[in-house]
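Before a colleague's protein record goes any further, I have to sign it off. Would you go through it and say whether the fold makes sense for this chain? Take the sequence as given and treat only the tokens as open to question. The record follows directly below this note.
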Amino acid sequence: MTSTYDLLNARLQAAFDAVAPGADPVLRTSERSDYQANGVMALAKQVGRPPREVAHEIVKLCDLTGVASVDVAGPGFLNLTLSPELLNDQLRALLDDPRMGRASTATPKTVVIDYSSPNVARELHVGNLRSTIIGDALARMNRFAGNKVVARNHVGDWGTPFGMLIEHLLDLGEDEAVASLSMGELKAFYQGARVKFDSDEGFKERSRARVVTLQSGDVETLRLWKIIVDQSVAYLSQIYDLLDITLTAQDAVGESYYNNMLDGVVSDLDRAGLLVESDGARCVFPPGFTNRDNEPLPLIVKKRDEGFGYAATDLAAVRDRVSNLHADELLYVVGTPQAQHFDMVFAVARMAGWLPEGVRCEHVSFGHVLGPDRKMFKTRSGESVLLAGLVDEAIARADAALVSRNFEGDEFSRTELAVDIARSAIKYADLSTERQRDYVFDLDRMLAFEGDTGPYLQYAHARLRSIFRRSTSPWNENESTFVLSAASERHLALGVLAFPEAFDLAFVSLQPHRLCNYLFDLAQRFTSFYEACPVLSSEGKLRDERLALCDLTARTLSLGLSLLGIHAPEQM
């Protein structure tokens, strides 16, 4: 079906184009009316005419079928109120539309999303949280939109630390090391290697020698390295499953994957005349980047010790993703501190011709997770907080909350629901925050069943579904007619119809919090409707209409939450 927004926007666009081709109507939902078009002032400036005069011309030119009234307000805002007939037609169309009005894109793209990206042989910690959750939401949203998503978990699986990790594995014995790693004891394994490296000169020398054999491609060293990588990726998969993250072991394409491409990166940049030697290192100086002294800033591609840094690997990844994966879009879900690095990598890739202008390449930056003291979230000893521990604590608290609320179900169902609630609390707190901002990790607030939280939205969905469980007589949704005589009915209906626009605002801007805002508003609209409009005690067509409206609201909440990676339970 054509969404209400697209229907109105197409009609307004035709009228705007008749005045000046290409002008944007800037259509938005509005509290003052059903929709408001705010583009008249820009159009009037473009054609050099008074805004209100242009606004009245737009009204005359526009196809207003299904629009009950159009008011010209202020300097030229167009306030549109929809007719009951159009509202009924659009709502009835939604009854048979599992996508709730948002059609799949007519021109699918291949979108490569780089997210999570932890270091191998390290346990996932709170510093990995935002990249993992935001990236997964963007992956889900792209798949829903109809795009082909190629997930890339760019794990740190190469470099000097692996010398000490391999030697530590040999010291423990392969069987014991594998048993330890398979139990998820990555932190203890890494710390054991680090302690020996810092205190034992013999171990340190062996570790450095092992790095050389690893980088030279020694078969036995590579086999030992692969044991550590495979066990680490298996552990990652367990944590991703615990959080219901869609990344798989096959999506883990680490630094090592690009290792054989690095010499080609350097030689091709050299042939293009872009490489400059600076203090023994081989660099590219992209225009517009300077240091604090206003001196040109280099992107170091090959270090003075002949080693490769992150820049070379990231350039190889861009090249691979465009040339071999045929990406139309590249999204890098990485923290804000890496902004300059990625800006420089993208600039050099474009200079080299590896990143055509038609390929969208964006650093999806995000802020920090803070503790209750509003400082970086760490343990009392100053270490990073492990993600598995946070999830386990959230599950335990959610389970205790269900017990206190006298949850009606067996222990298995309660435990399953506690996991859903814990995931929801953690994901929604992250995604509902504008991603560039920091936020405080506060489980008490995040797990609350009231306020702007994931559990509140889950509970709203469960309340909606409980209406149908309590219904003692059938209803025929296909014969429902939406009269919407009560103000709160109409308000809820408009909220349901606004889903495609809300999704697109979040999707295009890469800002999941906009979808969160919409879902919270929809849940509040339902609460107002439920308090004002009896559903099951209504009779006849009014009862069917209100049940249909409840069903559409529940389906919209469920769909919207699923795009954030959150399950909408039937019962809580």
Summary: The two ends are 33 Å apart (CA to CA). The first strand starts at residue 27 and ends at 29.
